[in-house]
Each structure stands twice: as structure tokens, then as C-alpha cells.
């Protein structure tokens, strides 16, 4: 082949990408035209005539990111960690890891998605050997959806149960109660007696979950129709929030991302008026700097940073891929990550004002009522609310908050899967509604295992393995791919091209050295400190733990599997042919 002449005609420019028509002029003079995208060496390859959808308004994007990052863990995890690990002193390691790892990784994912304008897998066209990590994070988001939607279904069940004159977790005279149940009003030391259980605890485990009808994970039973119905409602809401893309989800978050702040404020104003509330808040904020000498405090802070910001799920990449090319993602990263941390801190005042009240009411130490996880929001908090005048109204308000906290986080996880796969398999773009339906229905069918009599065991297993070590591994590979293979300098050039400002030395050092080292440390710690899952006194059998590990490894193996499959299918002379073609042009 001799040298060829190529005529490029600029058609339009959109978000920093120049769409052109190229005509190859052969010696015989017969032109062969085809569409082409000529970007300034940043790897954009949009399909001619197919523009990527963008957010209706900038605030839609910000609310979506905030709504995803601020979830139930901000309410049930951070306040307890803060109290357990030295109160205000816990903020020292928390903020330290936030600055050296949390924000840089958050910024990295937003910039990566916005620049390449594709989902979690498609962005790795910049460094194809790492494309497997894109499928890793997509799988993790899918796995989390299997059980996260169940928490929202529980909240919906509690919401429906709250529309009554007397809340069903107040007394022990219900059909589901056991002889061990002690009335909330009559038994002051119920929280201190290991042989007794409160009406609220029995309502959750026996009235909602029907745990008494299961002997373990090997005895699940059929799905409970009440929880299945609630789960179906959640799935329908998710579908109609996502089926049209960010144009619809961007409007839903105006409610789901803002409502929790309204409710938290209302609950705080009510909580601080309760007897014992100030004692709870003082315990939450009490500073014990000696605790900083304990390694576990720093590990807890690092773990909380990793999971609270939402990096590694592919959601930030998916959301930012719908931004305009020139959007200031640096400012967005600072604003949204800061709001997430402030929300965690603020929710602690709400939680501990009520925990202080419970401690005062039952005349027991605060550490007897302080807990984290589902037990806090489905047992302890409802129990506290039940003692207030107008308790049904407060219960409705509280569970509406839980619903809105959960819905937009679930939307984010689903969008990560949908966008990631649609951008990888382009033909799906024309069938967004059907593909979204397929994803949500598949999620619903798997989630049915979690609403059986023994569903809490499946839930616990998924929660323990689906997004633990695997998500730390995924973010580690992401950071290595960007910093050491694609290159920090090239990545900084990309950001400068978008926002007109090159990342400072601090960000570049964090991306290249600090964040990868931090993540490697976290992966090692997660393996070293691994404990098999359990639910109360129930210990999972070995085969259940094996299934859990298979689940975790299945997402992590996407990285080496893609490398192997890519190398085996690569044509031997591809690079040579491309080089010769470039030289000829």
C-alpha cells in the first residue's frame, strides 16, 4: 500500500470531541467515506450521529452522587464507630484517610468517567489490559443489589406497619411473641437480661423475618408473601426511576437525596428535647486520644472511608460519564465527598440523642443500647420511637427517611450495571427500557432468597462476602492502572483538557504512591483480619462460607480472566498493521 490522502471535514464539536467525516482518496479517485471521531488524543470514539445523554441540570448530577454516597451506613455505621473508637478522637484518623485516599480516589473516578464518557468497563479503552476491573466493579454492584434492596423492603414493611394507632412492636401480646418476650413498659432491665428479649427485637426477628421457622441457611423455606410484595414495590420504583436513563433518575433524586436531611433535622430537634439525650451526645463526642494508639481504631477509620464514599462500585464513573466534557469534576469531588462525611457526623447527633434517651429510660449504660447495623434502625430506634407521644407519626417519618436513603443508593448501583454493560455492548443502547427491566427482574428473583424464613442468613452471607475484600481489590487495580500504566501525567493532561486546570502535585502524589499503598494495606488487612460470618449465635456451615468465598473471588477473577482471554484472542499482527496504517496516512 502506498501513501493515502485523507480528507477530514469537521461536522460539529460536542463536549470537547470533534465529530468529523473522513474520506479516503484512492489513486483511482474513488472516495470511500465513513464517519470518524477525531479527539485530541484522548481516546473518545463516539458513534456518529449518536450523542451521549447528559444530565438535565448540574444539580441532578450532584444530588445523584450525594444520594448514592449517603446511604444507610452513614446512619447505622459511622456514629457507632465514632463512639466505640474514642469519640471525637476518631475524627483524626478518619479525616487523615479521607484526605490522603478518600478524596483522591473519589476525584479519580469522577474524572475517569467524565473524560472517557463510558461506563466502568468502557473507560478502560485508555488501557485495555485493565478492562477486567471494569467487569469486577459491575459484578460487585450487581451482587450488592441482590441484598441491598431487601433492606429497603424491610423499611417499607415497617412503614406500612406504622400506620396504626399502636405500633406492633410495643407489647408482647402478639401471635409472633415467644415466652422470653418482656414487655417494654414493664421490664426495665430487659436490655440487660440475656434471657429476655424486647418486643421490638422479637417483632423484627419473629414478626418480620419469621426466623423462628428456620433452623439455618440449609432450611430457608418459601418467600414470605408480605416481604415479597414490599420487595416487588421497591423493584417497580427502581425500574421507573431508571428506565429512561439520567433524565428520569436525575429528577427522582430531588426527593430521595434531600428528604433524609429534612427528616434528620426534624428528628434531631425532637431528640435533643428528650431526657438523657445530652448524655448520649456527650458520649458520642467525648475525646479519648489514647485510643489512637490502638491499631484497630485506624483500621476502622480506613475501612469506613473505603466503603462510605462509594468508590469501587462503578457508580461514580457511570454518573460522571453523563456530564458535559468541560464540567468541573474537581470541584464536584470536593463538594460531594465533604457533604458525605459531614452527613455521617451530623447523623451521629440524631442517633445518640435517642440512644442517650434509651439509656436513661432503661437505667442501663449507654454501651448496652449502642449498636450498629440493621439492629440499630430496625430494633433500637423503633423501640425508642415507640415511647414518644404520637409514636406512629414519628415512626412514619423515620422509615420514610430510611426508604429515601436506600432508594437512591440502590439506583446508583443499578445504574452502574446498566451503563457499564450498555456501553460495552452498544446494541443495548436501542433497548434501554428492556435491558433495565431484565436487570431489575433478575435482581428481584435472586433477592427472593433473602425474604424466606431463613432469608436473614442469605442476607448476612451476601453482606459479608459480596463487597468486602473484592471491592478493595477492585479499587486497588483501578488505582494501579491509572497511576502506573496509563500514567499520572497523561491522566493529569486529560483533566487539564476538561477543566483547564492541571491537578496539583498533592493529587498526583496521592494517585501514584499514597492511594495505591493505602489500598494495598487495606487488602492485606482485610485478609488478615477475616472472620467467618455469623448471625447472633448462629455459625454458618463450611459449605456456606465456601459459597461466600466463591462469590467474592468470582468478581476479582474478572481481572486475570480478561487479560488471559484478551491475549488469546488478539491477532498477532494487529499492532504492526495499525502502525503501518498510521505511517501511510
Automatic annotation (TrEMBL):
GO terms for cellular component: plasma membrane. Residues 26-49 are annotated as: Disordered. It holds the Pfam family SNF. Disulfide bonds join 172-181. InterPro entries: Na/ntran_symport, SNS_sf. Belongs to the sodium:neurotransmitter symporter (SNF) (TC 2.A.22) family. This is Transporter.
Amino acid at each position: 500500500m502506498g501513501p493515502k490522502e485523507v480528507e477530514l471535514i469537521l461536522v460539529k464539536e460536542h463536549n470537547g470531541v470533534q465529530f468529523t467525516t473522513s474520506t479516503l482518496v484512492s489513486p483511482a479517485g474513488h472516495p470511500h467515506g465513513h464517519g470518524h471521531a477525531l479527539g485530541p488524543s484522548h481516546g473518545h470514539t463516539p458513534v456518529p450521529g449518536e450523542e451521549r445523554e447528559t444530565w438535565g441540570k448540574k444539580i441532578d448530577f450532584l444530588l445523584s452522587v450525594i444520594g448514592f454516597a449517603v446511604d444507610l451506613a452513614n446512619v447505622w455505621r459511622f456514629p457507632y464507630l465514632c463512639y466505640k473508637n474514642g469519640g471525637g478522637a476518631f475524627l483524626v484518623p478518619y479525616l487523615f484517610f479521607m484526605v490522603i485516599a478518600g478524596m483522591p480516589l473519589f476525584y479519580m473516578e469522577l474524572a475517569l468517567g467524565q473524560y472517557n464518557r463510558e461506563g466502568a468497563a468502557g473507560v478502560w479503552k485508555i488501557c485495555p489490559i485493565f478492562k477486567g476491573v471494569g467487569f469486577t466493579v459491575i459484578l460487585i454492584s450487581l451482587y450488592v443489589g441482590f441484598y441491598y434492596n431487601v433492606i429497603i423492603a424491610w423499611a417499607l414493611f415497617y412503614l406500612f406497619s406504622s400506620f396504626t394507632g399502636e405500633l406492633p412492636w410495643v407489647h408482647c401480646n402478639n401471635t409472633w411473641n415467644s415466652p422470653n418476650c418482656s414487655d417494654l413498659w414493664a421490664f426495665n432491665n430487659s436490655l440487660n437480661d440475656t434471657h429476655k428479649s424486647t418486643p421490638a427485637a422479637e417483632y423484627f426477628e419473629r414478626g418480620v423475618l419469621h426466623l423462628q421457622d428456620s433452623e439455618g441457611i440449609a432450611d430457608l423455606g418459601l418467600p414470605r408473601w408480605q416481604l415479597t410484595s414490599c420487595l416487588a414495590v421497591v423493584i417497580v420504583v427502581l425500574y421507573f426511576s431508571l428506565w429512561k436513563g439520567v433524565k428520569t433518575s436525575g429528577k427522582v433524586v430531588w426527593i430521595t437525596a434531600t428528604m433524609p436531611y429534612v427528616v434528620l433535622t426534624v428528628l434531631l430537634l425532637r431528640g435533643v428535647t428528650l431526657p438523657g439525650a445530652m448524655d448520649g451526645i456527650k458520649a458520642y463526642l467525648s475525646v479519648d486520644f489514647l485510643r489512637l494508639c490502638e491499631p484497630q481504631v485506624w483500621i476502622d477509620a480506613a475501612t469506613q472511608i473505603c466503603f462510605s464514599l462509594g468508590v469501587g462500585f462503578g457508580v461514580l464513573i457511570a454518573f460522571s460519564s453523563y456530564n458535559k466534557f468541560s464540567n468541573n469534576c474537581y470541584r464536584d469531588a470536593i463538594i460531594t465527598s465533604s457533604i458525605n462525611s459531614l452527613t455521617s457526623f451530623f447523623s451521629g447527633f440524631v442517633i445518640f440523642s435517642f440512644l442517650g434517651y434509651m439509656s436513661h429510660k432503661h437505667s442501663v449504660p449507654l454501651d448496652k443500647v449502642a449498636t450498629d447495623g440493621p439492629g440499630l434502625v430496625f430494633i433500637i430506634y423503633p423501640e425508642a420511637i415507640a415511647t414518644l407521644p404520637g409514636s406512629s407519626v414519628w415512626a412514619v417519618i423515620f422509615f420514610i427517611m430510611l426508604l429515601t436513603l436506600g432508594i437512591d443508593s440502590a439506583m446508583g448501583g443499578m445504574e452502574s450495571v446498566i451503563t457499564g454493560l450498555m456501553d460495552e455492548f452498544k446494541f443495548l443502547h436501542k433497548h434501554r427500557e428492556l435491558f433495565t427491566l431484565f436487570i431489575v427482574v433478575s435482581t428481584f428473583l435472586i433477592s427472593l432468597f433473602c425474604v424466606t424464613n431463613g432469608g436473614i442468613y442469605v442476607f448476612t452471607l451476601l453482606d459479608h462476602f459480596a463487597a468486602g475484600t473484592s471491592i478493595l481489590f477492585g479499587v486497588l487495580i483501578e488505582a494501579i492502572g491509572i497511576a502506573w500504566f496509563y500514567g499520572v501525567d497523561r491522566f493529569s493532561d486529560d483533566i487539564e483538557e476538561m477543566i483547564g486546570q492541571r491537578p496539583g502535585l498533592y493529587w498526583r502524589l496521592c494517585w501514584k504512591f499514597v492511594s495505591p499503598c493505602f489500598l494495598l494495606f487495606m487488602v492485606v488487612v482485610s485478609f488478615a483480619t477475616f472472620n467467618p460470618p455469623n448471625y447472633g449465635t448462629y455459625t454458618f456451615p463450611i459449605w456456606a462460607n465456601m459459597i461466600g468465598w466463591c462469590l467474592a473471588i468470582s468478581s476479582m477473577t474478572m481481572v486475570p480472566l480478561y487479560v488471559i482471554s484478551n491475549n488469546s484472542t488478539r491477532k498477532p499482527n494487529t499492532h504492526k498493521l495499525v502502525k503501518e496504517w498510521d505511517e501511510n496516512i
